[in-house]
């Protein structure tokens, strides 16, 4: 399991080693591909080495290129170091850089396109406008010039023609958030294109989002008995598990668990999901949020769900790649693929974008024991259940089903389980 990425306390070499390992294990770069750097307060640049296995890098492998040009370390710095240096010189506000060859973004780079980040709600805000750097020889000064030129224009994420992508951030956590979100957007567009036609949000829909948010009142003081603290750790474990398995990204994902009565605990707003700690989780009691924290923007909806549906004790809503292919297109997500999928999920309905705000009756009214999951257009999959692990299992089953449908699209028309077979499943497994 990853350690927490707290850039305020970790040495740059620890940050770089951890994030390159995270990227490699998520399948977003290869053994030899990609590089990461951080520039510190002295102007020293800590960068991944050249020619060393990305799957087994340690902090001792990270190279320091001093401000005076001298090198400290047992390896050579990355062959792409020149463009890292050029970016830092062009943009003093950039303190960390990630370059890699994630498959979806490489797909865009080889057809000379930039992904439209309006495919999901938060991506335009996280990624900002995307630059485009014409092809130059890898490792060359010319490549550094064209990339730095894009950063000088104000871009913090750049598609590299026939190469990959490079992103910068105010620190490494910020850069990773941008990198992961941009690749997720690209994958969502690609998979949505395989099952239908991608549907993009308008700028107005995205800009209007904050106007619909309603903050909970704040309690004077929160108490944390042992059963409450146990739930915090359950939530953190599930969130990190979801991130590791590609079911959640740093920039999006909410988990809540009923505590006592209609009181519950929920993930916060604006804390990267990879880095969530138990102390970040927010208690909501008697309709009021724990002081000093900002609960998920969907806290009001979760509160209403718990009050309306006594059988629901945990909620997850997140963006997982294959499910978002259906949420971001008109394609029907038909879970009548294998018996387990229908038994757990039954028929998953799709809610129009914009109806997920506040105490959304469109969502709350749809949920039931026979309808534990909903897709919200261009936003998320929402899954409910009893125990948190059960809810997470439902999420996994839904994503596996969606993946099977996306992959099957290239083979031929789906042949679902018949109505008669579904009725047999209902009689054998569904308790009314």
Question: What would CATH call the class of the largest domain?
Answer: Alpha Beta
The tally of helices reads: 14
> What's the CATH H-level homologous superfamily of the largest domain?
Class II aldolase/adducin N-terminal domain
Strand order of the largest sheet: 4-3-2-1-5-8-7-6
Please state the CA-atom Rg, rounded to the nearest Å: 23 Å
Question: What is the total tally of β strands?
Answer: 16
Distance between the termini: 40 Å
Indicate how many domains the architecture comprises: 2
Q: Do you know the CATH architecture of the largest domain?
A: 3-Layer(aba) Sandwich
CATH topology of the largest domain: L-fuculose-1-phosphate Aldolase
Structural class: alpha+beta
What's the multimeric state?
single chain
**Sequence stretches where pLDDT stays below 50 over 5 or more residues:** none
| Percent in strands | 5-15%
| Overall body shape | globular
């Amino acid at each position: 399991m990853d350690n927490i990425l707290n850039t305020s306390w970790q040495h740059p070499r620890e940050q770089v080693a951890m994030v390159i390992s995270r990227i490699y294990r998520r399948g977003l770069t290869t053994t030899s591909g990609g590089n990461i750097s951080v520039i510190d307060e002295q102007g020293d640049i800590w960068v991944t080495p050249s020619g060393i296995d990305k799957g087994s890098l340690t902090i001792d492998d990270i190279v320091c290129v001093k401000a005076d040009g001298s090198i400290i370390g047992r390896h050579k710095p990355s062959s792409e170091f020149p463009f890292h240096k050029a970016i830092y010189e062009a943009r003093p506000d950039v303190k960390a850089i990630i370059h890699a060859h994630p498959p979806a973004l490489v797909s865009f780079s080889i057809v000379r396109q930039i992904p439209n980040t309006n495919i999901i709600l938060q991506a335009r805000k996280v990624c900002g406008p995307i630059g485009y750097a014409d092809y130059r020889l890898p490792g060359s000064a010319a490549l550094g010039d064209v990339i730095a030129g894009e950063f000088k224009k104000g871009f913090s994420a750049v598609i590299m023609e026939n190469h990959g992508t490079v992103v910068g951030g105010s620190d490494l956590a910020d850069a990773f958030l941008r990198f992961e979100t941009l690749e997720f957007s690209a994958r969502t567009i690609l998979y949505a294109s395989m099952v239908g036609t991608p549907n993009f949000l308008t700028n107005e829909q995205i800009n209007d989002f904050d106007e619909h948010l309603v903050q909970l009142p704040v309690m004077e003081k929160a108490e944390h008995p042992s059963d409450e603290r146990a739930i915090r750790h359950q939530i953190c474990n599930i969130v990190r598990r979801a991130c590791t398995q590609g079911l959640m990204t740093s920039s999006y994902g909410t988990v809540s668990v009923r505590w006592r009565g209609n009181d519950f605990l929920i993930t916060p707003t604006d804390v990267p999901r990879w880095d969530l700690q138990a102390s970040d989780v927010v208690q909501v009691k008697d309709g009021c949020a724990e002081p000093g924290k900002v609960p998920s923007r969907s806290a009001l909806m979760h509160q209403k769900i718990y009050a309306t549906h006594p059988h629901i004790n945990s909620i997850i809503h997140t963006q997982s790649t294959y499910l978002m292919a259906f949420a971001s297109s008109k394609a029907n997500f038909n879970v009548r693929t294998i018996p387990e999928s229908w038994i757990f999920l039954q028929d998953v309905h799709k809610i129009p974008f914009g109806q997920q705000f506040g105490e959304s009756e469109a969502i709350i009214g749809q949920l039931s024991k026979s309808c534990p999951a909903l897709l919200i257009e261009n936003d998320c999959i929402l899954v409910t259940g009893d125990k948190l692990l059960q809810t997470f299992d439902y999420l996994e089953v839904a994503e596996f089903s969606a993946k099977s449908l996306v992959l099957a699209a290239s083979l031929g028309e789906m042949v679902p389980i018949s109505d008669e077979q579904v009725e047999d499943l209902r009689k054998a497994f569904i308790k009314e």
